[in-house]
Structure formats: structure tokens, C-alpha cells
């Protein structure tokens, strides 16, 4: 599906660079933030930040993994990042991986790179809400356009809460009454981008490859411990086609 995009800012400089900050939406298809980043740009910086807040190994965790994520979830994420990198390379780009506190990393990149647009998918997580405000404030002060569409969820949670008098609905039935038809329901379908502008000059930023579990500091467990489910958009689309073909 293709979500409606806001019109281009007439004050936006032509032929400028864009930074596409990947978080949960690790996909090429149906990604309005990526589509907007690519539109009218001479270069695009596709960035993912390895956040110690979620991915730092914790030997005291209940099960192997970090404080907030088990080893299978982290493996799934790394599968997804590797698949995204592969998809971007087919379009003449690549995934830029950096490590550190995301707010600090993003601000450093915005200062270092020639960026006129910052694009990322809206996230309802309180941790990311605070982080996003920090980054958006810096970008706005630097004259950088920010585009952050709601596309991880089918509806904008803030709209649903507003329709319900400032409170989240407590039942699915009440949610359905409030939600109605999603705004994108009558929009034309967007399959995928046919190309992405190349990556620009990354300056002094030390770009990493998608790391392995071992490179992140995790000890490889017995294979029997792992989930059979692989991460990545390609695997997700394969499973979708397989399911839809089963009449």
C-alpha cells in the first residue's frame, strides 16, 4: 500500500541530500519515509544506529541476550539489517551502520553530512518519542526539513486517542467505531522503489558493516536454542506469497 505523502516543502533546496533513519521499518516496500527521502535528492544516507540501550550484552539477563532483548530477537534484527543492506545495494545504495546513543549519532551525522531532509518512521515508544524530539529540535534549528510519517501502524494512535476524548479505547469494538477507514485505503499501491540516489560523502564518520552476534559481544549458543524464523523483508514477502497461494 502507499500512504499519502505531504506535499514537498517549496522552501526545500533542490538537489540536496537526505538522511533516512531506519528503526523498526526495515523495508524497501511500502516505506513512505524512504520514498520521500529519495524524491528530489542527489544523495541519500540510509542509516541504522546500533543502540546499546537495547543491544548491549547483559550476562545477568534472565536468558541469553541484552537487558531488553533475547538472543533470538537480536539475531532476527541482524538478519533484517543484512537483508535491508542487500536490497539497498541492488538499488545502488547501501546501509550505513553506526554505533552509539542514537540522538548523539544522528546529531553528529546531521552536522557532518550535507543533509537538507531528515526522514524516519514515527514511533509510539516513549523512549523513541523523547529521542525523536531531541533530534527534530536540532534539525529544525539547523534548517533541516523533518518528515516522520505514521506507517508502522495502520492508524495514527494519537488520532484515535483524540477521538476518544484523550483516552485510549479499552475494547476492540470501541476502537473500530473510532477508527473508521484508514486514510490510505483509497490511495494507489506502491510496490517498491526502482532506484535510490547514491550515498553521499560520509566525512569522518566510521561506517560499520552489519555486525554478527559475535562482533556484538554475544556468545554463540547451540543451534537448537535458535528460532527457526529468519528476519528480513525478503523472508517476510516469501512467507506472504506462500500464504496467499494457499487457497
From TrEMBL:
This is Photolyase/cryptochrome alpha/beta domain-containing protein. It comes from Hibiscus sabdariffa. Pfam families: DNA_photolyase. Gene3D superfamilies: 1.25.40.80, HUPs. Transmembrane segments: none annotated. Residues 16-154 form the Photolyase/cryptochrome alpha/beta domain. It comes from the Eukaryota.
Amino acid at each position: 500500500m502507499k500512504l499519502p505523502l505531504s506535499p514537498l516543502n517549496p522552501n526545500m533546496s533542490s538537489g540536496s541530500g537526505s538522511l533516512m533513519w531506519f528503526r523498526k521499518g526495515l523495508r524497501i516496500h511500502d516505506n513512505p519515509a524512504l520514498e520521500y527521502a529519495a524524491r528530489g535528492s542527489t544523495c541519500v544516507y540510509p542509516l541504522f544506529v546500533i543502540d546499546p540501550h537495547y543491544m548491549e550484552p547483559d550476562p545477568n539477563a534472565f536468558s541469553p541476550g541484552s537487558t531488553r532483548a533475547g538472543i533470538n530477537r537480536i539475531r532476527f534484527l541482524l538478519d533484517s539489517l543484512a537483508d535491508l543492506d542487500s536490497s539497498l545495494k541492488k538499488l545502488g545504495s547501501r546501509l550505513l551502520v553506526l554505533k552509539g546513543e542514537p540522538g548523539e549519532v544522528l546529531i553528529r551525522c546531521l552536522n557532518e553530512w550535507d543533509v537538507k531532509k531528515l526522514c524516519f518512521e514515527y514511533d509510539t515508544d516513549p523512549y523513541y518519542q523523547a529521542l525523536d524530539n531531541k533530534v527534530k529540535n536540532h534539525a529544525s534549528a539547523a534548517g533541516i526539513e523533518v518528515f516522520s510519517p505514521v506507517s508502522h501502524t495502520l492508524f495514527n494512535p494519537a488520532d484515535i486517542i483524540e477521538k476518544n476524548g484523550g483516552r485510549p479505547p479499552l475494547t476492540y469494538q470501541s476502537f473500530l467505531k473510532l477508527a473508521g477507514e484508514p486514510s490510505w485505503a483509497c490511495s494507489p499501491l506502491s510496490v517498491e522503489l526502482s532506484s535510490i540516489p547514491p550515498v553521499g560523502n560520509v566525512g569522518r564518520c566510521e561506517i560499520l558493516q552489519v555486525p554478527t552476534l559475535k562482533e556484538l559481544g554475544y556468545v554463540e549458543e547451540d543451534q537448537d536454542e535458535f528460532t527457526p524464523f529468519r528476519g528480513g523483508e525478503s523472508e517476510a514477502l516469501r512467507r506472504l506469497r506462500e500464504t496467499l497461494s494457499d487457497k
